[in-house]
C-alpha cells in the first residue's frame, strides 16, 4: 500500500529569490598592480549551490566554459551574464503560469477524473486545458528520462481504495498544483518539447477545439438555459395568478354594481306605485263627495 502523500506547496513569490540570487553575485577583486584583465581561471571562481527544490540534487554550479573579459570587477561569463539582464528580467517578470482550477468526475463509457488547468502565457494571454492523472504520469515519466536529476515528484497513485473520494481528489489536486509549480521553476523543463505540448504552448486551444470541451460548454449553456426557462415559467404563473385575481375582483365589482342598480330600480318602482295608489284614492274620495 502506498504511503499517504502530503504535498508541500512551494511559495508563489519565487521570482524575488531568483532575482536576488542574480543581483547578489559578489564582485571579483582584481589585482590593482596588474594591468592584465584577462579571464580568471575556473578554480578561482567560488562555486554557488543552486537555489530551489533541485539545489541539493543538482549539486554545485560549475563555471561556464564561455568566459568574457572583466569589466568593472564583474565576471561576464554566460552563467552570470549581466549584459542579458534585461532579457532575464523579461522572462522572470512574465513567466508561464499553469494554475489548476479544479476537477470534474465524468461518467461516459468509463468513469474518470479530469483536472482543469488555466495556462497564462508569456504575453498575458490565457487558455484552459483538461488533463487526466494518467497524462501527468506520462509527462513525469518523460521528464525523468530527460532531466533525471531535477524532475519534480507527482502525488503517488492510490490502490485498492475509492479514487473518487472528494477528500482524496482535493488532496491530489494540491499535489498536482505543486508539481506544476516546481516544474515551472526549471527553465530547461519549461522549454522542453514535452512540456510545451502538455500545456499547449505551441498551439493554444480555443474553447471549442475538442468535442469533450464543446460538450462541456454545451452542458453549461443548457443548464443555464434550463434555469432561465424555469424562472420565466414561475414569472408567467405569477402574472397569470395576478391577472386571474384582478379579473375575479372586477367581476365581483360588476355583480355588486348590478345588485345596487336593481335595488335602486326597485326603490324607484315602488315609489311610483305608491304615488299611483295615492292618486287613485284621492280621485275616488272626490267622486263619493
Break the fold down into its secondary structure elements and pairings.
Elements: H1 15-23, H2 55-58, H3 85-93, E1 97-107, E2 111-120, E3 126-132, H4 133-146, H5 166-184, H6 187-190, H7 193-198, H8 211-288
Antiparallel strand pairs: 1-2, 2-3
Account of the protein in words:
The chain has 289 residues and is mainly alpha-helical. Among the domains are: 97-205, PX Domain (2-Layer Sandwich), CATH 3.30.1520; 211-273. 49% of the residues lie in helices and 10% in strands. It has 8 helices and 3 strands. Strands 1-2-3 form a 3-stranded antiparallel beta sheet. Strand 1 and strand 2 (111-120) form a beta hairpin. The protein starts with 14 loop residues before the first helix and ends with a helix. Mean pLDDT is 68; it is low at 1-84 and 86-93.
Helix/strand class: mainly alpha
Largest sheet: 3 strands, antiparallel
Q: Give start-end ranges of low-pLDDT stretches.
A: 1-84, 86-93
Count of DSSP E strands?
3
Shape descriptor reads rod-shaped
Could you tell me the CATH topology label of the domain at 97-205.
Answer: PX Domain
Helix content: 40-55%
Distance between the termini: 134 Å
The CATH architecture of the domain at 97-205 can be named as: 2-Layer Sandwich
Cross-sheet strand order for the largest sheet: 1-2-3
Say which CATH homologous superfamily of the domain at 97-205 is assigned.
Phox-like domain
Mean pLDDT: 68
CATH class term of the domain at 97-205: Alpha Beta
Count the DSSP helices: 8
What's the gyration radius in Å?
43 Å
What fraction of the residues are assigned to beta strands by DSSP? 5-15%
**SSE string, helix = H, strand = E?**
HHHEEEHHHHH
Domain PX: 93-206
GO biological process, one term: endosome to lysosome transport
Subunit structure: Homooligomer. Interacts with EGFR.
InterPro entries: PX_dom (IPR001683), PX_dom_sf (IPR036871), SortingNexin/PXDomain-PKLike (IPR051837)
